[in-house]
Amino acid sequence: MHLEHLLRTTGGIARISRLIELGCSRRELADRLASGRYLRPQRGWIALPETDSELLFAAEHHVVLSCVTQAKRMGLWVTDPHPVHHVAAPRRNAKIRGPSPVVHWHRPLVPRPGFVLEDSVENLLALVAHCQPREEALVIWESALNRSLIDHSAMIALPLTGRARSVLEACTPFSDSGLETKVKHRLRWLGVPIHEQSWVHGRRVDLLIGSRLVVQIDGAHHTGAQRDADIAHDAQLALRGYRVIRVSYFQVMREWETVQHLIVGAIARGEHLAR
């Protein structure tokens, strides 16, 4: 039970050398492997049968789950499903077989212990900045900032390269979703003040452009009581002289030109200015 308990604290899989350091005997490990009740994805590793398949993949190929794959595993806002694994690997250890993942060979910002299969948030963000389009990178970075998984000042102190530093400089921790990040950055060219999660008449609004134009962005599952309360708040804002534009997930992701036309038209008419 000692071995099984240790494996459950490490995600169901661990390096044998690491388990020995934690107190397991070589005899116990050999007996458990011989019993056939444990998996051996790669020499030097042992795993429970129910272990996450992505962790088994990483151990089998001597790589670390990173970039958008690890971002999704950490619950960060990732736009596309990215069916292909993104991994990080040292050249001397990687043994890629079968369907090829996207392999990142960059030197990690934060050193990786030899027994880990999942990259740190700092390392995955650095890879995202180099691998993904800028908007997608901004979405993932701001998601990490919003969830307090990273600290802006701590990231600045790391040796970020040009693209990663540029993404960090453009990020804020205020966007509650990737949709807000996308809309905010797509409108930066307008050169007008855009405030995220501003408190307006008793509730937060997604974006406040200037002092009077409110943009509310409904997520893919924005229904029920929340939607009813939001619509009621929209009406209260309208009574107080605010212009409210409410758009959906589909509109942001698939009909951006229409959304942009609505917002640009409102700004052209001065509806973002105090009267």
What does this protein structure show overall?
This protein has 275 residues and is α/β, with parallel strands linked by helices. It contains 13 helices and 9 strands. The protein has a 4-stranded mixed β-sheet with strand order 6-7-8-9, with helices on both faces. A 3-stranded mixed β-sheet has the order 3-4-5. Strands 1-2 form a two-stranded antiparallel ribbon. α5 packs across α6 (121-131). The model has no long low-confidence stretch (mean pLDDT 91).
What does this entry show, briefly?
The protein is 44% helix and 15% strand. The protein has helices at residues 2-9, 16-21, 26-34, 53-61, 67-73, 121-131, 134-146, 152-156, 162-170, 178-186, 224-239, 249-254, 256-268; strands at 13-15, 45-47, 64-65, 86-88, 102-104, 194-200, 203-209, 213-218, 243-248. The mean pLDDT is 91.
